[in-house]
Amino acid sequence: MKALVIGCGIGGPAIAMALREVGVDAEIFEAYGASADGVGAFLNVASNGLDALRALDAHREVLRAGIPTPDLVMWSGTGKRLGAVSNGLALDDGTVSHTILRADLHRIVRDEAVRRGITISYGRRMVSFEDTGDRVTARFEDGGEATGDLLIAADGVHSRTRRLLDPTAPEPRYAGLYSGGGIVRDQDFTGEPGVYHLVFGKRAFFGYTVAESGETWWFANLPRELGDVPADWRPVLAEAFEPDANFSADLVRRAELGPMLPIHDLPPLPTWHRGRVLLTGDAAHATSPSSGQGASLAIEDAVVLARCLRDAGDHRAAFRLFESERRDRVERVVAYARTISNSKAAGPVARVFRDALMPYFLKRSASQESLAWMYRHQVSL
Ligand SMILES: Cc1cc2nc3c(=O)[nH]c(=O)nc-3n(C[C@H](O)[C@H](O)[C@H](O)COP(=O)(O)OP(=O)(O)OC[C@H]3O[C@@H](n4cnc5c(N)ncnc54)[C@H](O)[C@@H]3O)c2cc1C
User: Fold this and answer.
1) Total domain count for the chain?
2) What value does the mean pLDDT take over residues 161-187?
3) I need a surface site. Which of 131, 182, 236, 321 has the fewest CB within 10 A?
């Protein structure tokens, strides 16, 4: 059996590696070139995502390149410490969530897929597919095509496959926030390693952590109308953080800045698969980054899909089983992240309530058992 995997982001290589484990050949087709830049962009690989990578025996490099970030400390924009919670639950062997540059995570999973003999074709944007019942053919912008037994979409939140599969599928929803990050390389700024500080500022949300190298990695979520893009984000961000009683504005001024991107998530989709075609990762269930789970869910999908293909009688049964195992979980994460994103874009009145009530909620969830469903979830082949 051969699968065409569309998209070589985080999920695509994980899918190809997982399919190999169960004897399904996979080739990856990526719209862009092989470079994985993205200055300042980093993400949280939650403990459940690391566990899913471990199921593929592909976790070691990620642990090496990332920084352990087991703790979150929340602050109000007025400088009040609202409380602390864990950034996910530790696995049985003590592994905790890691923060990693997105470019590093991307490079590591791609390189590992290539090392295992998987072919990745770059510059191949899929524009359409045809499912003839016994085979499926993907057509590319360059005029070429490829045929296989399955087409697995890992083409991200703005998935072309999703639109082709179901033209009535809901569109991604703008979460009301632009998000981006930066790195401050001066070593004179210090902080406790392993702690993510999150600041519910007056006008915008700020998060930062200090890497062992002494670099400070930060991100900002700025409430803003979609399409309202300034020529230069730095003064806009610096002004947004100016009223806050911490050093966010200073870090913004001193950083090497990455791009600011609008945040989207996806409402529940009526259709995840049809015939020989299946949606996975952000294409099926994009969550706003507030959950810190998008990459982890895409990797979990890979493991579960491979097991379903191995255990179910045929691809139809496998896709049905995949959806039944994944849908409730991923939709719960999307809903959870949406609540958090809304609190970041709170108006003045909601902000007062948020800052007053948050210490109570944080205390209640300090054990994190209330989030065990998210972080303790385990997938296996
Ligand atoms: C600002 C921001 C912060 C985030 N922070 C976190 C975080 O802290 N933790 C976390 O877990 N997640 C985070 N995420 C989400 C995470 O990056 C995604 O959930 C994850 O990358 C999803 O993987 P994917 O493979 O489904 O899609 P992607 O990684 O987006 O990959 C999709 C790939 O498909 C390619 N593609 C698209 N269309 C086509 C086509 N027609 N033909 C061929 N190829 C195509 C794209 O070029 C891309 O390479 C964040 C996202 C953003 C935007």
Assistant:
1) 1
2) 93
3) 131
Give a yes or no: residue 30 inside a domain: yes
Q: Is 15 in the pocket of ligand 1 (CB under 6 A)?
A: no
Reading the block at residue 381, the tokens are 């082949």
pLDDT over 60 (residue 292): yes
Q: What is the CATH number of the domain that holds 97?
A: 3.50.50.60
With a 6 A CB cut-off, is 36 part of the ligand 1 pocket? no
Distance of CA 19 to the CA centre of its chain: 21
Ligand 1 pocket member 374 (CB < 6 A): no
Report the SS3 class of residue 197: strand
Q: Would you mind telling me the total number of residues written for the chain in this entry?
A: 381
Distance (Å, rounded) from C-alpha 380 to C-alpha 315?
A: 19
Strands 205-210 and 216-223: antiparallel
- The whole-angstrom separation of Cα 52 and Cα 302 is 9
- The three-state secondary structure class of 178 is strand
Tokens linked to 99? 């923060």
Nearest 5°: the CA angle 186, 190, 193 is 115
323 Cβ inside 6 Å of ligand 1: no
Q: pLDDT tens digits for 245-269?
A: 888 999 999 988 889 999 999 999 9
The protein residue whose alpha carbon is closest to atom 27 in ligand 1 is 156
pLDDT in tens, 53-102: 999 999 999 999 999 999 989 898 999 998 888 888 888 888 899 999 99
Higher pLDDT, 137 or 341: 137
In-domain check, residue 76: yes
Our answer on whether the CB atom of 172 is closer than 6 Å to any ligand 1 atom is no
Query: What's the 294 CA to ligand 1 centre distance in angstroms?
Result: 8
